[in-house]
Amino acid sequence: MAGDGRINRHGIGMTSARTRERLIERLRRQGIANEAVLERIRTVPRHLFVDEALASRAYEDTALPIGQGQTISQPFIVARMTEALLAAGPLQRVLEVGTGCGYQTAVLAPLVGEVYSIERIGVLLRRARRLLRELELYNVKLKHGDGWTGWRAKAPFDGIIVTAAPNDVPRSLFAQLDEGGRLVIPAGPAGQQTLFAFTRKGNSFEQEELGAVSFVPLVQGTQ
Ligand code: SAH
Question: What domains sit in the chain, N to C, each tagged with a CATH number?
Answer without folding.
Answer: 63-213 (3.40.50.150)
